[in-house]
Amino acid sequence: xxxxxxxxTGDKCIHTEPPICxxxxxxxxxxxxFVSEIEKGDLKKAYKLMEKRIPFARLIGSICDHPCENGxxxxxxxxxxxxxxxxxxxxxxxxxxxxKALELPKNKGQVAVIGAGxxxxxxAVDLTKKGYMVTLYEKSDRxxxxxxxxxxxxxxxxxxxxxxxxxxxxxxxxxxxxxxDHSGLKELxxxxxxxxxxTGVWEEVLKIDSDTFQIEDTSVFAGGRLANKNxxxxxxxxSGRRAAxxxxxxxxxxxxxxxxxxxxxxxxxxxxxxxxxxxxxxIEKKNxxxxxxxxxxxxxxxxxxxxxxxxxxxxxxxxxxxxPNAYVRQINHNERIILGTHYANxxxxxxxxxxxxxxxxxxxxxxxxxxxxxxxxxxxxxxMPLSAHDFALKDMKFSNSKKFSMVRKxxxxxxxxxxxxxxxxxxxxxxxxxxxxxxxxGFLFYPGCQLSATHSEHIGEIYKYLVGTMKENYIEGDVGLxxxxxxxxxxWAGRQDLMGENTQNIKKVWEENDQPTFILACSSCxxxxxxxxxxxxxxxxxxxxxxxxxxxxxxxxxxxxxxxHDACATRHHSNVHKSIRNIVNSLSxxxxxxxxxxxxTKCCGYGGLVYYANRDQATEFIKDRINESxxxxxxxxxxCKDLFVSGGKRTLHILDLIYGTNLDGLANxxxxxxxxxxxxxxxxxxxxxNDIWGEKQGMDMMNHVDFNLIIPDDIMAIMEDRYILVEDIxxxxxxxxKNDECFFNPEMNQYLARLRLxxxxxxxxxxxxxxxxxxxxxxxxxxxIVEE
Amino acid sequence: MNGQSDKDITWVCHKCNQNLALKKVKxxxxxxxxxxxxxxxxxxxxxxxGEDLAxxxxxEVEKGLEDK
Lengths: 788, 68
What we know:
The complex is a heterodimer of chains A (788) and B (68). By secondary structure, chain A is α/β, with parallel strands linked by helices. Helices cover 45% and strands 12% of the residues of chain A. Chain A has 37 helices and 20 strands. In chain A, helix 4 packs across helix 6, helix 6 (83-94) packs antiparallel against helix 12 and helix 24 crosses helix 35. Chain A starts with a helix and ends with a strand. The mean pLDDT of chain A is 95. The radius of gyration of chain B is 13 Å and the shape is elongated. In chain B, strands 1-2-3-4 form a four-stranded antiparallel beta sheet, with no helix packed on it. In chain B, strand 2 (18-29) and strand 3 form a beta hairpin. Chain B is of the alpha+beta class and 68 residues long. The model of chain B has no long low-confidence stretch (mean pLDDT 89). Helix content of chain B is 22%, strand content 38%. Chain B has a single domain, classed as Roll (Ubiquitin-like (UB roll)), CATH 3.10.20. Classes of the chains: A alpha/beta (788), B alpha+beta (68). The A-B interface holds A 340-343, 345-346, 385-388, 740-748, 751-752, 754, 761, 763, 777, 779-788 and B 10-15, 20, 25-30, 38, 40, 45-49, 51, 54-55, 58-59, 61-64, 66-68. Strand 16 (743-745) of chain A pairs antiparallel with strand 1 (12-13) of chain B.
């Protein structure tokens, strides 16, 4: 895995980019944290945050010209947050005298600061804190410069005097009545390591660098109104601060310019959208300052602007409380571990790879692709936790085994001649279709593994419908049938080895059968074919229903209102979305679209095999989607229905509308268990071979044992949770009985047997009564016990 | 990983009609090889793993090894 590329992707994410208020504050007060503390009622902590960023916080906080408020995203939704008023309230109610800081040795050098105004005092204090011996030269007899203009106009005399004591407390030497002119400056330049000029006016024009505040390449730096050419209080403070950084670098002989891109005001790429925010008007203050309560109310209006566009739609990122940039860093760390625990594994296996994040991101960051690549890399390095996807991959193997998989051409005319007589030929489109058989396969119906397990009773009917319909419209192309699994589990699990094998097998079938168009009924199949088998033409069953008309059945028109949940695998297939809606409309249902719909649809929780790797995470996905929907859900993916019904939501599959008889029953119908799915698939294959191709011999593919297995419901539920199949425990018991390999508990009169099947040891506790074997408990482990 | 309790002792090996005894047993998973004391039939060596152990400590060790 290209980790540099990965990190680049993560760096594109702007989740951690500051809001415009912070970016337009020259000293970058952390407004979100500041406002959050006020909201919590902790004005003392809020003051600490001011103090951290703003020199002479009580003074500046009271008279700041607050450029932060100009761009506030709240501006058009009730008015900018009144950060300035909040600061004033915090100065009033949150101030606490600073504890006396440990005095640092001042041995880094000597600096002269000319002018004890805002910028000069800031530079003096900052440089003192950095370890310089600073001397202030002030032409008047007091500190503060134009701060005194605010006496009685926002600042009380006592407060000014108290706050200015900082200079003395810092041990900064002050020379009052010291009018330094051009020649005085030259003298100072020779005496000290650097000079800061903060005099507001100067006798000659100075060439001040706007980034470093250095005057040409001298040891003199200038800020305040000399550099800013305006009266902004906070800009003045900021220039003093930044010049102090330059002076430190200058004396330390390091680059004056490196890594200083975001000092002062800068442009943030964050563009917070307020279109969904409710209008909340500013809180007016009743007195001179906000009361604590008013400040809290005003702070509550702040939206804490941060790009969360992808997170807002993603249950997974919400659960792990993570953004793409942090996610990528964790993956990077996980990938680089050689010895130690891969803590991010569980998170990486909890993404449904649904792709909604990319839809929501204006920078097109796709965590789906990142996760996909990461899982492949984990597999390659042998670092993918075995248990995460083992069951799903075994299920895929089952579906591609003889127990389910099969390929058949349309029954030949010769084999179907029993049907070719009146009146069958006149009413049965299927018989007509067979009669028109050309021997050349134009279409291959590929219902997929899950639909064949959940709606197996309709597959034969659909096949007959397709033969009738397609042969009516395409004389040449017969319709064949192909049962199997497209390989989606391997794709999700990062198993490119299995995926490649599977793709080759499907391609082989396609080539051996006249390169037909595949008719797909599963959204995952559609996306897998598109990704791995682009040469194969596909069409969804839903498009065929829409284009050629529904099967001739007595379908009762629906009156209910439905929310359509689009499948995430086909989020970009607008033709599928359209067909589904056309079908639903044609059956007289009313559709109410969900907020997250079509290309912005959400995953049900099955995607990415999350259902197997982290069941709790899947449950969160299910809940999230169910909460969004007020009506019955209409889905067209078998697993979506399964998961929503498991969450207690009335959910109908599109096939339920067409082939179902009791819709109320179907909407709540418990979906087949994992064991029943296997059974249903095998049974479907047997039934189709028997009913349509008349193949009867050697087709009994069910497992047979000489006992009658009884599994109570509660045990069945446990088996589902633990991914234990009926066929597994059947083998355990059969093996125990045939080989007398088990433990016995005479008190309970029960047996306990174990058998290792592939990489799992299954344990079954059971009771025997004649031919009846009743299961009492089941569990398994992967660890291998060496019995010697 | 010894998580076996007294109640487990009520099991006997059906084939050998033997009580089980606590013995050192080798277990392995992925890159991990351990020796732990488990109940087993001293005659046929069949090892008993109770549900609590399988779903408790054993699962924890499995997960730990999988994330190594």
